[in-house]
Write a structure and sequence with these properties.
Layout: H1 2-13, H2 15-20, H3 25-61, H4 68-101, H5 110-120, H6 122-127, H7 134-156
Helix pairs in contact: 1-3, 3-4, 3-5, 5-7
């Protein structure tokens, strides 16, 4: 997990360098899935803690009648739903989104496009457990996606007369 977090932090801090050397698809997918599962757990735990503290606050300071077993059931249900949402959106919705992005990245191979999308979601994967900052992280991810496609397009251009320009 440390390796995946370090890689995501490198992508955030120096996207030009990381997008120009995409590397192995399997290792990118492994790092992405590790971060996806970790952030799903972290977000679920933070949500559980916030709902529990909110219920305690209402019980202590506003004298609300809280049934803690029901509250724990509700908070546990939210934890589970957040986990499944992260798994669903991080796999199936990402695949569907990649089908819509592909026409805008014509010269990019589909595998490289998926890697760029994995890399561009690094801000969301590292910081989405913090409540309320998802829109900003989404904009940051879109910026990284556009930057990654541009960098990949520049690095994939083949010079005329090079050995890569074979039939």
């Amino acid at each position: 997990m440390k390796k995946a977090i370090k890689k995501a932090w490198k992508i955030i801090s120096n996207p030009n360098n990381e997008f120009s050397k995409l590397g192995n698809f399997e290792s990118s997918l492994r790092d992405y899935l590790i971060l996806l599962i970790t952030i799903g757990l972290a977000t679920g735990i933070v949500s559980f803690i916030i709902y529990s503290l909110n219920a305690m606050y209402l019980d202590i300071f506003l004298s609300a009648d809280i049934t803690y077993w029901r509250m724990l059931n509700y908070a546990g249900g939210r934890f589970t739903s957040i986990m499944f949402f992260y798994m669903f959106s991080g796999t199936f919705l990402l695949f569907i989104l990649s089908l819509f992005v592909k026409p805008f990245a014509r010269n990019t191979k589909y595998v490289h496009l998926l890697q760029i999308m994995f890399y561009s979601l690094s801000p969301m994967l590292l910081f989405s457990w913090i409540p309320g900052i998802a829109p900003g992280l989404g904009m940051w991810s879109i910026f990284l996606l556009i930057k990654g496609i541009r960098i990949n397009k520049k690095s994939s251009e083949i010079k005329k007369g090079s050995l890569e320009q074979r039939e």
